[in-house]
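[09:14] KT: can someone run the structure on this one? pasting the chain below
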Amino acid sequence: MSLIRKIFDAELARKDTQKGPNTIKGSALIRQQGGGVVTCAGQTVTAIPATAYADERIWAIYGSYNKGYRPNHLGNIQFENEPLEFRQFTLGTTCDAQGYFKFENVADASFYIVTNITWQAGNSQQGGRLMQKTNVWKGELKEIVITP
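[09:31] RB: done, structure tokens below
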């Protein structure tokens, strides 16, 4: 169980999830040891406003504020006293069949973009959670590729 010391700024997160002039689009993929590529097709992609609370949470999960990967075999981190609004003030979309996603009408802000990519190998589930931080401002179209 992990405790986050920062206070969740619900007002900032609410503002960052309002409509705005920007677009974030991209793809997420993991290259397997044998050379195959697995994408986020059909998976949820979440844009989390980069508040102080989210910064601390992202660091606990990925050990980085910019880009990260957490393999499934490490399991999930449970957080104590998660604010109810934390998940409410995020943006969500789904990767299409080719592994592409898009967030339209995004406010000027910084976001952690997170998704999960998994596949079955024998009796074992492979893959994990990926994260990349991005910023959008003043009507920007930001394109990202999320990889481990």
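[09:33] KT: thanks! The longest helix spans residues 52-62.
[09:34] RB: yep, looked fine to me
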